[in-house]
# Entry
Amino acid sequence: MKKILLALFFCLFNLSIIQGRTFYANGNKLEKKVALTFDDGPGKATKKILEILKEKEVKATFFMLGVSVVDNPALAKMVLDAGHEIANHTYGHINFYSYKNEDKNLKMEREILKAESVIKNILGIKTFLVRFAHGYAKQDSIQVASKWGYYVINWSFGTDWQSMPANEMYLKYKNAISNGAIFLMHDLSKNEKVISFLGDFIDDIKNKGYEIVTVTQLLDIKI
Ligand SMILES: [Zn+2]
# Structure
């Protein structure tokens, strides 16, 4: 019995590390707030997305890839200058679900820090939110990230990489509006589907009485 209790304790303890202060996939479910996040850019859709966000007076969080920032430094500056939140999506989008080499932890650390360094050099800011490629959020990645003071951020809903008509995709996003939602979309490719409904989607969120905030505001993270 004692052993079972002990095992349960460690299980809960580990769970609290995973689900505690350093990993989030949504905000407070009691508050009518949501966050919009854009991954993999800056890229082909970034300008259009910035225009829509400006028109709708909304701030979003951009999880930038280090390599995309190197390729598109002017676009990255446009995002920052428009007042949006800049976050870290690692340097090269390595899929750690399938990464089997022994240096996995070191590789994860390097991927975060390389992106951090590029963003620091080009934009002059320090990132503290990280999202791994494909939402890899396990105990190892969360521990590596927290070692460097990072929060690992996933999402509560996203579907823009899947093949479906734009109106169907729009409805799926619309139906996922809920307290504390973190929406995932992408801005590296043209992403014409998201661009076609983003303005209407933002209106829907507002019309339902929700406030759109950055991830840091949604999670009430004190820097
Ligand atoms: Zn990505």
Residues 39-40, 89, 93, 133 surround zinc ion (CB under 6 Å).
